[in-house]
TrEMBL record:
Enzyme class name: oxidoreductase
UniProt protein name: Ketimine reductase mu-crystallin
Family matches, as SUPFAM superfamilies: NAD(P)-binding Rossmann-fold domains (SSF51735)
Pfam families (UniProt xref): OCD_Mu_crystall
Length: 293
């Protein structure tokens, strides 16, 4: 058993040790399959506890997980604030604790076959990381970006490697897009089914509270709906709960092949974020850190 004091790995060091999020894909894919396999998969991940910080419009999420396949045990502590006095401050701040368990990818199966146009709604931290991984993995011919605050979209567009078209409205960005990523702090719909091309794929990443929305009922009800965790989607996702849309599968079931991917249909992947994803990422970073020390 380790009696070493815990190491502190800063955000800058995490970026050095994990230069591309795609390095996590094999581990994440296996973890999602294991999660959807139930007890046999060896993933212990209770629904996250979310503590409202009412006077300040914030939330504290506690996200523990253990993955037997990786023998890795973590918990993430993440705060997220809807309205912040200092608007330059990040809306989300997270710390992951990795324990010694002895004493303490995503394959893009939902991607349409000939995806040419990528649309990102939102221009924050998640917008940048989704831009990076989607353009690394797929040869889009056009990337469109919309943000409620156009300046934020212009700033993100000018700071990434490739060409990005900043659109004046969400509708302009969405119409005709093959893949649409929603990464906003919106609490009412910003993406409407009538704009979405049949056969498109939507990665819905924001709206992680039971009364928050990013997608309207038309889109939710007319799409094939895949979620990261059924239990979490039915407890935490306003888009799922308030639309009453039927869940077709967990992503882990699609990755395992027990449910089909249906790339010819309009698909929505509703992601809420899973603690076991942090478990895989934290172990990767810690192993890379250990190898260099
Ligand atoms: N599913 C998952 O695994 C995860 C989901 N998230 C969620 O993803 C979303 C984006 O997170 P970050 O990029 O870190 O946040 P951020 O604060 O860096 O960016 C938020 C973006 O949303 C825009 N926005 C804020 N209010 C809006 C509104 N009412 N309508 C339209 N746009 C609005 C902002 O201008 C900004 O472009 C959040 O909802 C967050 O909770 C975050 C981490 C993991
Ligand atoms: O996975 C995550 O860390 C979060 N999902 C929604 C808010 C924070």
């Amino acid at each position: 058993m380790s009696s070493e004091p815990p190491v502190f790995i800063s955000a800058a060091e995490v970026e050095r040790l994990l230069p591309r999020a795609s390095l996590l894909l094999p581990g994440l894919e296996a973890a999602l399959c294991n999660f959807s396999a139930g007890a046999a998969g060896g993933v212990e991940q209770p629904l996250r506890a979310v503590v409202p910080v009412r006077p300040h419009g914030g939330f504290l999420g506690v996200m523990p997980a253990y993955s037997a396949a990786d023998d890795a045990l973590t918990t993430k502590l993440v705060t997220f604030y809807e309205h912040r006095g200092d608007s330059a401050a990040p809306s989300h701040r997270a710390t992951v604790l990795l324990f010694d368990p002895r004493c303490g990818s995503l394959r893009a199966l939902l991607m349409p076959r000939s995806a040419e146009v990528l649309c990102i709604l939102g221009a924050g931290v998640q917008a940048r990381s989704h831009y990076e991984i989607f353009t690394e993995l797929f040869p889009f011919t056009e990337v469109r970006l919309w943000s409620r605050t156009e300046q934020h979209a212009l700033r993100l567009a000018s700071s990434v490697g490739g060409a990005v078209r900043v659109c004046g409205t969400a509708r302009e960005a969405v119409v005709g897009a093959d893949v649409i990523v929603t990464v906003t702090m919106a609490t009412t719909p910003i993406l409407f089914g009538e704009w979405v091309k049949p056969g498109a794929h939507v990665n819905a990443v924001g709206a992680s509270r039971p009364d928050w929305r990013e997608l309207d009922d038309v889109l939710m009800k007319s799409s094939v709906l895949v979620v990261d965790s059924r239990e979490a989607a039915l407890a935490e996702s306003g888009d799922v709960i308030l639309s009453g849309a039927e869940i077709f599968a967990e992503l882990g079931e699609v990755l395992k092949g027990t449910k089909p991917a249906l790339p010819e249909k309009t698909t929505v992947f509703k992601s809420l974020g899973m603690a076991v994803e942090d478990t895989i990422a934290a172990k990767f970073v810690y192993d890379a850190w250990s190898a260099g020390n």
